[in-house]
Amino acid sequence: MKNIYGLTINQLEEEMLSLGQKKYRATQLFIWLYEKKAKSFDEMSDVSIGFRQILKKTYTMDLPNVSVKQESQDGTIKLLLEMSDGAKVECVLMRYEYGNALCVSSQVGCNMGCAFCASGLMHKQRNLETYEMVTQVLAMNQQLAEDDHVTHVVIMGTGEPFDNYDNVMSFIRIINHPHALAIGARHISVSTCGLVDKIRQFATEGLQVNLAVSLHAPSNELRDSIMKINHAFPLKDLMDAVKDYETQTSRRVTFEYILLSGVNDNLQQAKELANLVRGMNAYINLIPYNEVNEMPFKRSNYDRVRFFCDYLKQNGVNVTVRKEFGTDIDAACGQLRAKKEGIIK
Which of 74, 198, 200, 249 is 20 to 30 A from 209 via CA? Predict the structure, then answer.
């Protein structure tokens, strides 16, 4: 049986027609599933008993099991969720002044192989289905108070979203729908390590969703050494695609840049980074590194972070330093699952 949370409104309309129903049934079901938060088809009181029986035979409403829940002193919540086949994925809720941002995973493991990332220690097992992403949001909402809920979504957890493109696009359309979770497009962000062909495809989707690019190095030589994706999509190809994306969508792009001590945080790299993004409608998000014992990288110290940030500002670059969350729990991508599976300590 299909999990009904994996169907967009258009797909559900087609399903309703195939079941001999009117298209409006799709909106009716969306309202029950997401606005009224029905736990079963039997709760759908304005749907005939006979059709409820058909729905129960055709679809499931299963949510993943919460395998582990960690809650930080700063209010950050991390869930390790177990899917129906036993696969485990993570999602993390971070509380900002503007709302609750949920970091969602798009794959079980990851094949991108970024040298500094805990997710890369767990090779990709499979893509997550659309419903497995939607139900990460629903599972987190169940952990929150009645008047509290996820308001922003960042698809930046384990996995490369553009390596699971179709499911990610369906996920976005579901959570953005006004009769589903009604999360505004500008409150949704997708992060890619640089799949150039998919960036170009994303530019044609007509979505007001935010795009973030994991850059982490301002030169091909350095990026080759820490990000395997750069061998397939070199820096010039990536930057050309991003510039075309900006022109086509009039949307600002975020470049994510993890600061690694002695690797990518010196003056030369700050100069190269400033030159790389000059003239673009973009900003740099500097990220303090979450260290992993099994990896050789160390986080840049506070003075180095401030120096790097100040240099960029002085050279006309829009730049911020990401606020850290969940430092007392396993909040970095892949850390909780990797620990539970004995991959890291």
Answer: 74
